[in-house]
Amino acid sequence: MSLPAYQIFEEKIAGLKKAGRYRDLKTITGPVGTTVFMDGMEMILLCSNNYLGLATHPRIKEAEASALKKYGTGACASRLISGNMEIHEALEEKTATFKGCQSAIIFATGYMANVGVITALAGKGDLILSDELNHASIIDGCRLSCATISIYAHRDVDAINSILSQHDPPDPHNRRLIITEGIFSMDGDIAPLPDILEAAKIHDAWVIVDDAHATGVLGENGRGTAEYFHLKDDQLIQVGTFSKSLASLGGYVAGPEPVIEWLKNNSRSFIYSTALPPSICAGSIAAIEILESNHLIRRHLWKNIKRFRQGLINLGFDTMGSQAQIIPILTGDTNLTMEFAEALFEKGIYAPGIRPPTVPEGKSRIRVSLMASHTYEQIDRVLYVFEKVGRQLGII
Ligand SMILES: Cc1ncc(COP(=O)(O)O)c(C=O)c1O
Q1: Do 83 and 226 fall into the same domain?
Q2: What are the E-state strand segments in 211-279?
């Protein structure tokens, strides 16, 4: 008798479990605040991208609720068919102004924004330089583009210069794109964007910066990496998401008008996918308005970052050069990392272990992300537990 076809997956899953790489879903009940309820227990949440704590903000909830009443639940078509509503255009205008760019285009998710922009701007014969730690959505966009891909060492501008000087474009029309995250999603360090842009100018390349984690966090007004470094340049295209600091959903690309127009005509993840629900767009607009008018929230986030990171360093943890709200705590071994995460969980702290294939072998870690709304009391409690567990497991 032949075995059922799915047995191969049972075996593969058993393999994942044995290697400590099995992933399961944790269920949260109730809203996403600095604490959440999981398995009936109140846990301090240390892994949300709700960096500014806006996910429960009354003004955003109100904006979404009234847009829902006004426009209904969905756009029910792609933008180029009958799904283009005034609120989509309003969000694009808001995003372009917020990012200091001529124009912007929105996508259903940040993942789709990366895939959409990369595949529309690069193709066969073009060259893409991608940081070795770039997010999966960038990697997938690169793969789908069919361009030549060159992965450079993390944040290494000498490597970028060297690759570009060795690759003269075969045709003057061939493009070269350098793609980097602004704040890196697993390491929390910041891309050297001014130097990357300078290399791009020397070698006639474009730069795409993915500000998924930098929007709302970096820069005087939270506009992201370009604002943080005081950069404004037509060769710089800014990608990001409304799903993290802005506590909503959707992705965007902001840049020069002709580039955005090109994307509207060529970006497959824009053209062949349903437009965002109008209520979601209203939430994103309200979140940007809050960001523009309330700078105290972001300042508090930075106070939390400094307190927590310094606390960890004082205890002897390796925070891997993190510069921002994402703080990895290096544990190295995959099983040790999962033991650490479980011990934290038992003590009421939810900060999951990150392991291969998300990070390289030997670089497993606990990845913490802080929120502006965390209290000093919560942060100090977390440091106390980290010290206890870290000593028990011989990490410090
Ligand atoms: C760097 C980076 N880019 C893009 C994305 C995708 O964004 P979204 O969750 O909106 O699809 C993520 C999400 O984790 C990310 O970390």
Answers
A1: yes
A2: 236-241, 251-255
